[in-house]
Every structure is written in C-alpha cells, then in structure tokens.
Amino acid sequence: MSEESKPAKVRKGDGRRERGNRTGFTTGACSAAAARAATIGLLDSEVPETVICRLPNGSEVSFAVSDGYVEEVAGLAHAVIIKDAGDDPDATHGAHMTADVRILKHRAGEVLLKGGFGVGVVTKDGLGLEVGGPAINPVPRRNIIDNVRSVAGELLDHDGLEVTISVPLGDEMAKKTLNARLGILGGISILGTTGIVRPYSTAAFRASVVQAVDVAAKQGQTTVIFTTGGRTEKFAMRQLPELDESCFVQMGDFVKAAFTSAVKRDFPRVYVGAMVGKLTKMCQGLSVTHAWKAEIDRDLLAESAQEVGAPADLVEEIRAAETARFAAEKLANLGLTVAFHRALASKAIRSLKSCYPGNYHLTILVCDFEGRFICRLEEDEVL
Q: Where are the domains of the chain?
C-alpha cells in the first residue's frame, strides 16, 4: 500500500473516531411514562400497550409498556417501562421502571408520590432532597406528577392518587453507582432534567461530581480528594485511611467542575490522586481531560523526561510516542520513576493553582498503573 492510499492515522484525541449516537431515556422519563400508563389503566380498566409521555424538555415520546394490569376492586393499576439508555448504557440500562397507581378515596386533587422497592432512600443532607424520602430528583418528580395529572382528568375532582415508583433489582443496580457514597441507600436514583440520555453525555457525570462535593461540604468535611477513577480512588483511600468516605470524589475527566466546586465550598485541603496520563493533562491546564477533548502534550512529557536526566535519544522517542504510559515505562527502566512523576506533579500543582485560585492547600498523590504508590507532592514544595 502506498503512503497516499494509507488511511489517515486517528489519534486518541481525534474527533474523527465514530461513536454510537442513539439517544435513550432517563429513569425519570421511564417512571413518568409508567405512571401515566398506569393512570390510564385506572380510567380505562386496561393498561395500554404504548403510552405517549411528555418529557421535561417538552417533547412527547411513545413508550412501549412491557407489562401492566388493573385491579378494579382494589382501585389499583400497575405498569412497567423497560429503560433503554440508547448508546450510553449505564448501571440502570434495562431496568424495569415500575409504577403502581392507587386511588385515594375522598382526597380530591391530591397526587402523592412515593418510592418503592429499588428506589434509594436519602440519608444525608446536600442533595436537595428530603432526608428519609425517596431519591426522586425534583425535575422527574414534577414530571411524573404532571403526566399523572394530565390524564387523570375528572377523577381528581373527587379522589386523589398515590403513585409508587419501584425498580426490581434496583438495590443491585445501585451497587454499581456512587449512591451509597452520597447517602442514597437501598436503590437507584430517579434522575433526568430533560428526560433524554445522550450518548457519552458529560452533563450527568459532571453534575454528579458537583453533587458529591456538595454532600462532603454538608457533612462538615474540610478535605476533599479528587481521583480520576476507581483505581486511583482505592489508592488514595489507602494513603488517607483516616478520612471519611464522603471526602473521596471521583472527578473522572472533570477537573474544572471538581475544582470550582471545591473553591466555591471553601475546602481548606484538596488532594488529587492520579496516574501519569491524567496528571499530564492537568499539567496542560485542561478543564476536561478526556482523550476526545485533547491529545496528550508529548513535548511536555519529553521536557519533563529531559529535566530528570533522560538521555537525548529517549527524550526524542518520548516526544514521538502516542502515550504518557510509554514515557513512564521507559523511564522506569532507568530508575527515574519517582523523579519523573514528581516533575509532572510539580507542573500539575502550578497549573491547577493558576487555573483555580483559592485558599486551599493542594497535594498531589501519584500511583502506577497497578495502583501502587509512586510519590506525594505538597504545594509548599513547589510554590
């Protein structure tokens, strides 16, 4: 194959990579659709096979009802919508979002929303939800009630309705989320500000980072530890065993969201736990460190290697390489692991303190790809 006919090389940060783009629906939207279908069932003595639901963003969407029945004597209807998250499947993809709607005799106009099995219970302040109540966020809460009211019609002139949202296996799904860390126990959260899940959407994760910082602040914590994922979080927890679990926040790629929240909440101590790749992105001053947003700065890696005594030929190899891992592994062979990572940590501290000024003390904790300790650097050693 000639050079001209070879396909263009696509790097990690190149937007030309293709990804799925099929949208899905939030737990909140599916709950609203199930509640609407069950309410129609009460009125018509039969739950429909499909239901048109108005989402929080104003759009109207048809949902298939996977299961439903009516118990006329009990004044109860039951409907299930299976959650489809589109091309961004999460822990709740495939969840059976279930609504049981029951008539409340002589309670005209009332629509009472409850959480059933598999919906988490709020146990901590800082979430904007009532402690002891179900983890149904304000927007989906309104959306569920609005959909019920829109089809209940004259029934509400003399009676009320009790709507219970439940999620079979929701307790197991919740174990794959950060709910327990946030103080939401026993199930998943009913979420969604628009009703739509967009593929590889960053909004939900960014919001969860801000929420986790808020919860830590509400709990009276004075230290927050930002990590880039599960492995770095476990590493940081081993380094700081005296700190409460609520202090640890997986910021993922969302550096700006994490630090601006910490500054806003006046945390006096901020730690970052990272490995070489994300650490390098922080040196670059990136607000989002995802590979799709920007390539790794190979010149920065090469210069850092040169600073710690790497030979000239290796410096140029690092400059031409695709990943930060290449640099870390090559320098490890020369016994320069600690020096190299300290050089990067130093640059990261300068960059973070410049981008996010505030009255906090910053510490960087660095581990290798197996989660083993490499170094710890305090801002006092740098600034």
A: 24-197, 203-381
Q: Are the C-beta atoms of residues 218 and 207 closer than 8 Å to each other?
A: no
Tokens of 161: 């309705």
Nearest 5°: the CA angle 66, 151, 101 is 55
C-alpha to C-alpha distances, 254 to 95, 182, 351, 371, nearest whole angstrom? 27, 18, 15, 21
- Which residue, chain included where needed, has tokens 């009676």? 159
pLDDT, tens digit (0-9, with 9 covering 90-100), for 322-377: 789 999 999 999 999 999 999 999 999 999 999 999 999 999 999 998 899 999 99
Positions of E strands within the chain: 24-25, 50-54, 60-64, 67-71, 76-82, 96-104, 111-115, 118-119, 121-122, 160-166, 184-185, 187-188, 196-197, 223-227, 248-250, 269-274, 361-367, 373-378
Cα(240)–Cα(283) distance, rounded to whole angstroms?
Answer: 24
How many CB atoms within 10 Å of residue 249? 25
Class of domain 24-197: alpha beta
Write the single-letter amino acid at 221. Answer: Q
Sorting pLDDT into bands at 50, 70 and 90, what band is 9?
A: very low
Mean pLDDT to the nearest integer, 186-214: 84
Q: How far apart are CA 194 and CA 139, in angstroms?
A: 8
Mean pLDDT throughout 240-261? 95
Q: Which residues contact 89 (CB under 8 A, 6 or more apart)?
A: 24
Would strands 121-122 and 184-185 be described as parallel, antiparallel, or unpaired? antiparallel
Rg of the chain taking only CA atoms, in angstroms: 25
Query: Helix (H, G, I), strand (E, B), or coil: what is residue 171?
Result: helix
Q: What is the largest CA-CA distance in the chain?
A: 84
Q: Could you report how far apart the first and last alpha carbons of the chain are, in Å?
A: 53
